[in-house]
Specification:
CATH class of the largest domain: Alpha Beta
Oligomer: single chain
Helix content: 40-55%
Structural class: alpha/beta
CATH topology of the largest domain: Spore Coat Polysaccharide Biosynthesis Protein SpsA, Chain A
Number of strands: 10
Order of helices and strands: EHEHEHEEHEEEHEHHEHHHHH
CATH architecture of the largest domain: Alpha-Beta Complex
CATH superfamily of the largest domain: Spore Coat Polysaccharide Biosynthesis Protein SpsA, Chain A
Number of domains: 2
Radius of gyration: 20 Å
Number of helices: 12
Distance between the termini: 9 Å
């Protein structure tokens, strides 16, 4: 029998294409706990999003809105905000996507956490994350998040833990903290906007991990972030610098421990991110990165330049030729088939 309790969770989908939207909505319709409402914000897409969404109206509590102007291509964070504004005061918000999947017990596990008080009182929850490809086949099972993390530990993980993955779609947050902090932090192309926002949302009360069911983040040719470091490398480099500057201010507000973590791991994080650019950094980009790092983290110009080149060499020679194949081999050994998703609710 379908649960008629009032929904306290709003699942928000900023939509721009239908290629995987049907799969995303099917995974939502398959949830065993029905206490949620779904809000789809059509970013003035040329594709027939409304026609697809209407096929799910009988299965889930669904709200659709087509915006007349395309905002995601110029200000993605603003598009997220206007999609969230469609919600009807539900106390919890889940910003999902039009191409990812959730396992059938995700919503039930969330309600277990808030109703049974199975976790510390927090404003931010997250699921464990898997990486899938365009065929919905699991390609990576990332290392698991701890059950609870203080803000300082979360900051350290974001800057230094390369075995865990952090995306926007596996997080659920309270409306209270969303309104209190002003929503998502804006960076060019929304690069690092989710990371900065999760730090804001967890600053006072930390973040709790929901064990069991997982969210599956899809990597594919048409994804928003696919090829970003090549096609939008200027914006990515700008976002990296703005994020580091934002982290410097954030860590100062958090206290000495956060400042120590930022000073210890911030420079390596910045160099590691831009070392992934392909083609590799130009001479002008290297000079810009070195000057920026010297200004933010101190030390001599020679020290900053040598650390940058060490990061470039380490990423190209060691990570690409040795570490990445090893991780792929390890993932294949531990890989478990996803299996078909149910198309009807439990």
């Amino acid at each position: 029998m379908e649960d008629k309790s009032p929904a306290t969770l709003a699942i928000v989908i900023p939509a721009c294409r239908i290629r995987y939207l049907g799969d995303a909505l099917r995974s939502i319709a398959a949830q065993s706990d029905r206490r949620f409402s779904v809000y789809v914000g059509d970013d003035s897409s040329p594709e027939p999003i409304e026609a697809l969404v209407e096929t799910f109206r009988a299965q889930i509590d669904l709200h659709y809105k087509r915006f007349e102007s395309n905002l995601g291509s110029t200000n993605l964070v603003a598009h997220w905000h206007r999609c969230i504004a469609l919600t009807q005061r539900e106390p919890w918000l889940w910003l999902f996507s039009d191409d990812d999947l959730m396992e059938p017990e995700c919503v039930a596990r969330f309600y277990d956490a808030i109703e049974l008080r199975a976790s510390p009182p927090v404003d931010l929850f997250r699921f464990q994350l898997d990486h899938i490809n365009e065929h919905s086949a699991r390609t990576v099972r990332w290392s698991e998040h701890p059950s609870y993390e203080k803000s300082e530990d979360f900051l350290r993980a974001l800057l230094s833990d390369r075995d865990r993955a952090f995306r926007a779609q596996e997080h659920i947050f309270s409306r209270r903290i969303y309104e209190e902090t002003g929503g998502f932090v804006r960076f060019p192309k929304a690069i690092y906007s989710d990371h900065a926002t999760w730090l804001c949302f967890s600053a006072k009360r930390g973040v709790c991990t929901l064990s069991g069911p997982r969210v599956m983040w899809r990597s594919h040719l048409f994804g928003t972030t696919s090829g970003m470091k090549k096609v939008h490398r200027v914006q990515w480099h700008e976002a990296a610098r703005l994020y580091i500057e934002w982290l410097a201010v954030f860590s100062q507000r958090q206290g000495p421990e956060a400042v120590r973590i930022f000073q210890r791991f911030g420079r390596d994080f910045y160099f590691r991110e831009i070392a992934q650019f392909r083609p590799v950094l130009t001479r002008a980009e290297r000079q810009l990165a070195t000057s920026f790092a010297q200004r933010m983290f101190g030390g001599s110009w020679i020290s900053a330049y040598s650390h940058l080149h060490y990061s470039l060499v380490r990423h190209k020679l060691i990570f690409e030729r040795v570490i990445r194949p090893y991780r792929q081999w390890k993932t294949r050994r531990a890989s478990v088939p996803l299996g078909p998703l149910s198309t009807s609710p439990s």
